[in-house]
Write a structure and sequence with these properties.
Low-confidence stretches: 4-19
Strand order of the largest sheet: 4-5-6-7-8-9-10-11
CATH class of the largest domain: Alpha Beta
Mean pLDDT: 94
């Protein structure tokens, strides 16, 4: 009987798929057409990877309720293919499910699969394993790069090509690459990408996006792809630049930046002048422009996926939060900007449109005290090392994210010694015979040199614990390998004979830790504990009394924290909590004993 019921259910879904009518989305002269009728795109960027899977429908409902008809999402290649040839489209990576939910909620989808996407995401979404190849070049017709790109796009086509509007799905447009005019001038590379997407089964209109000033200096656009323009101010200027580049096309802001991202160490969170932007939005809508609001909902760079930039001649890494001062805040709650924009958009809906009600806010909780009762020293829980004559980057040793430890003996070292790190990326704690002696941080070049203290030991052990803070995601410095990427010298002599310990900090690795049943003063270290809940809900872990590290709760990596701010808490989604006992593990590079830990239902941005 169960088998018969399953067959009937399967037949129902097959017939439903067959009977889903294919529609037509087209670009004709200066208009978008949906089934032959003029259509304005009102879109918002919202990336499935930055939203807990269980909350994706809630966020999509809120997009529809605000007055949007489309959702725009990047596809992060490095999450889908963490190892060469090993693809993962399950759970948080289930982009097809996200797109189907969008359709169910009455939203079209703009797909932006890269392969490069920027987005303040590690390596701009490119997989770190590409960097194991010493001769790799990206975003060009480099043979090894293009071989990997084609395999990725072809695999993506198997997942998503049947979700295009031409097949009855919601995908209406696909972006080729991303802001290529600010990076390169290889038109043949874009032409090749376009051909691969066609080969993978994608047949909806293609588009490219660039900032307005790039249309002045670059002319590498694709003839068969619509150019759109990205900006956060002065739409008159930017659309003029777009139309000077190519006239007689639908005018669309591919990204209208309603907020901005934030670096570790910034004095305040990124934002925009919203009063100015409201006037600009109304101007664009009055002039018949289409808009994609970046971001509608930013979400969170969970784990170690936050990216970095090279700005003002120094390295700056992004915080874990991707709040972005977006229309929905990091926890998915409508902001004042959300409601004000909804009022504006209501005047530009098709006649007779009745927007759905905004969903209720997800429940929140406060956790007054979280007890951490166990300790595991990093140095007492190292994996098997790899033997290396000289140091190499993290990628050379087959590691994508996390931390890495380099260890060597300073054989016959002089009493006065100067240790120099050549291209250490990004943040390191230096130890001599287990004693902390200094820090090297990439954005302070003068600190790449450490004066070693005198010791009685003629052959002391040198330990260098390096944290990868995020690969550069924009500009010419994309080949941003992690760890010690060149060499280490002592008084001008290159140090040899290293033991290298991979520390990706996966949850499976943390399960192998040997904790002591007490709190022991030691750093760097892991601290473990638990907290009991009578009910679940969203909350923010308060880490203002901690130093630098990351947090796992019930197997989920919430991301990095750092006492230099401006972020001092981590978003903990209620769907990752459970009634009863919950597990927490914190790793801190700097703190000797765990500080008080609690949570709040709201973020404090002060």
């Amino acid at each position: 009987m169960k088998k018969l019921s399953f067959l009937f259910l399967l037949l129902f879904f097959i017939l439903a798929a067959i009977n889903t009518p294919a529609q037509e989305f087209a670009i004709v002269k200066d208009q978008f057409l949906m089934n032959g009728k003029p259509y304005r795109i009102l879109s918002g960027s919202m990336h499935y990877s930055r939203i807990p899977e269980a909350y994706q429908r809630d966020r999509l409902k809120k997009a529809k309720a605000m007055g949007l008809n489309t959702i725009d999402t990047y596809v992060f290649w490095n999450m889908l293919e963490p190892e060469p040839g090993k693809f993962d489209f399950t759970e948080q990576n289930n982009i097809a499910k996200y797109i189907r939910i969008a359709k169910e909620e009455g939203l079209n989808v703009i797909l932006r699969p890269g392969p490069y996407v920027c987005s303040e995401w590690d390596f701009g979404g490119l997989p770190a394993w590409l960097l194991k190849d010493p001769d790799i070049r990206v975003r060009c017709l480099n043979k090894n790069y293009m071989n990997a790109v084609e395999k990725y796009i072809m695999r993506l086509g198997k997942e998503l090509s049947n979700l295009q509007i031409t097949k009855g799905g919601p995908i209406v447009m696909i972006q080729i690459e991303n802001e290529y005019g600010s990076y390169g001038n290889d038109r043949e590379y874009l032409v090749k990408l376009s051909s691969i997407f066609h080969k993978a089964g994608f047949d909806v209109p293609f588009f490219t996006s660039d900032a307005g000033d790039q249309y002045i200096y670059k002319s590498v656009g694709l003839n068969d792809a619509l150019p759109v323009v990205n900006f956060g101010s002065n739409p008159q200027y930017n659309f003029r630049m777009l139309n000077e580049f190519r006239s007689g096309i639908p005018n669309m802001s591919g990204e209208y930046w309603v907020g901005w991202f934030t670096y570790w160490g910034d004095k305040k969170w990124g934002t925009q002048d919203w009063d100015r932007q409201k006037k600009e939005i109304e101007w664009m809508l009055d002039k018949g422009k289409s808009i994609n609001f970046y971001m509608f909902h930013g979400g969170t760079n969970f784990g170690f996926y936050a990216g970095a930039n090279w700005d003002n001649d120094k390295y700056n890494s992004d915080i874990t939060s991707y709040d972005y001062d977006a229309l929905l805040d990091e926890a998915g709650n409508p902001t004042k900007k959300y409601y004000e924009l909804s009022q504006i958009l209501s005047k530009y809906q098709p006649q007779g449109t009745e927007l759905p009600k905004v969903p209720d806010q997800i429940s929140t909780i406060n956790v007054p005290e979280i007890k951490l009762t166990k300790t595991a020293s990093l140095f007492n829980n190292l994996p098997q090392p790899k033997i290396s004559s000289q140091v190499h980057s993290m990628e050379y040793y087959g590691q994508n994210l996390g931390y890495i430890l380099y260890r060597t003996k300073l054989v016959g070292r002089p009493k006065k010694a100067k240790l120099v790190f050549n291209k250490l990326h990004d943040y390191a704690q230096i130890y001599l015979d287990g004693k902390f002696i200094g820090t090297v941080y990439r954005n302070k070049e003068e600190n790449s040199m450490i004066e070693l203290p005198e010791t009685d030991d003629p052959n002391p052990t040198l330990d260098v614990v390096v944290e990868a803070l995020g690969r550069i995601n924009f500009g010419p410095r994309l080949l941003d390998r992690k760890g010690i990427t060149n060499y280490v010298e002592l008084n001008g002599v290159t140090l040899m004979n290293w033991k290298v310990y991979n520390l990706p900090m996966n949850y499976s690795d943390l399960n192998k830790l040997k904790f002591t049943e007490e709190i022991v003063s030691t750093a760097p270290a892991f601290y473990s504990g638990h907290f009991d809940l009578e009910k679940t809900g969203d909350t923010f872990l308060d880490l203002s009394k901690w130093k630098k590290g990351f947090v796992f709760v019930n197997g989920h990596n919430l991301g990095r924290y750092w006492d230099i701010g401006p972020q001092h808490d981590l978003y903990l989604p209620g769907v990752w909590l459970k009634k009863g006992r919950n597990e927490i593990i914190i790793f801190d590079l700097l703190i000797d004993t765990p500080a008080p830990l609690s949570s709040s239902s709201m973020r404090n941005k002060d």
